[in-house]
Amino acid sequence: MTTLLTGATGFVGAAVLRALVARGERVRALVRTASNRSNLAAIEAEIVEGDLTDPSSLAAALKGCRALYHVAADYRLWVPEPASIYRANVDGTVNLMRAALAAGVERIVYTSSVATLGLNANGTPSDEATKSSLATMIGHYKRSKFLAEEAVTALVRDAGLPAVIVNPSTPIGPRDVRPTPTGRMIRDAALGRLPAYVDTGLNVVHVDDVAEGHLLAFERGRVGERYILGGEDMSLRRILELVAAATGRHAPRIRLPHDLVMPVAYIAETWARIFGGGEPMVTRDGVRMSRKRMYFSSAKAERELGYRHRPAKDAIADAVAWFDANGYLA
């Protein structure tokens, strides 16, 4: 059986690729022409070039495939042109799912995000049933993932799309080549560039556990259902303490009020718009999200899929070690 995988050059996608290959699966990786392919080095996989916004390339990539893992996504919390995120995350997902239906793909795992889920006001962990809406989504990334998941759910209901949805929390670990926004935070903390923190919380999970959760969802997940693939709830302060422990640095002790950080975000975004240089270190949407503790429960995945996760400190230690070994901390 040939499996098509999107996002194989990225952080989570590369982990899924390695997990599939380790199982002896025959994998075809859909890769954009300009993608950084370092995560594909020394991996036995067929590479095909294509783009989620090009339906003809998707039809060619899916030819002969019975399985599909759609992991690719534009994961940026700030972009100068927001429409590009919707083209990739929403339009691209719909294009791929329709192409999969036309190709007769038998089983699909779609990688959504906990970003699509609601948050409990009292800070207790959310689950798959916690209500959310487009109006509660902060920023274009969250809105795009919410709309994409709604589109997949509609195709399951109306067209018989054989898709299982997984919602990873905050993956951390090796091979974050870009790095992702979370990976940048770990790298910057390891470099001593974060002298202070805000009062927030995240659910931290090792990227390889997320990858294993994808394979379990393929094998045991119920079509149309979604499963949180999370790890350990912890405050940002605790995360930075673990980074400090892995690097021998002192953890930041200054807690900044959110209202004090917001003006900095405005300035950083304005600077990025005028002078370029990529995503700002701090963004308005990031500050807005940090006002809540983003805690989640993986109980459903544990119960139905047999999903398990290792301690978050292991994920952080592996991330720091990989960044160090690959020159990111020089």
Count of beta strands: 12
Distance between the termini: 43 Å
Looking at this structure, what is the CATH superfamily of the domain at 2-177 and 204-234 and 295-313? NAD(P)-binding Rossmann-like Domain
Instruction: Tell me the β content.
Output: 15-25%
Written overview of the protein:
It is built from 11 helices and 12 strands. It is of the alpha/beta class and 330 residues long. It has a domain at 2-177 and 204-234 and 295-313: Rossmann fold (3-Layer(aba) Sandwich). The strands form 3 sheets. The protein has a 7-stranded parallel sheet, sandwiched between helices. Helix 4 links the parallel strand 5 (107-111) and strand 6. Helix 2 packs across helix 3 and helix 5 packs across helix 11.
List the helices and strands and how they pair.
Blueprint: E1 2-6, H1 11-22, E2 26-31, E3 46-49, H2 55-62, E4 65-70, H3 83-103, E5 107-111, H4 139-159, E6 163-168, E7 170-172, H5 181-190, E8 196-197, E9 201-206, H6 207-220, E10 226-229, E11 232-235, H7 236-247, E12 254-255, H8 258-275, H9 284-289, H10 299-305, H11 312-325
Parallel strand pairs: 1-2, 1-4, 2-3, 4-5, 5-6, 6-10, 7-9, 8-12
Antiparallel strand pairs: 9-11
Helix pairs in contact: 1-6, 2-3, 3-4, 5-11, 7-11
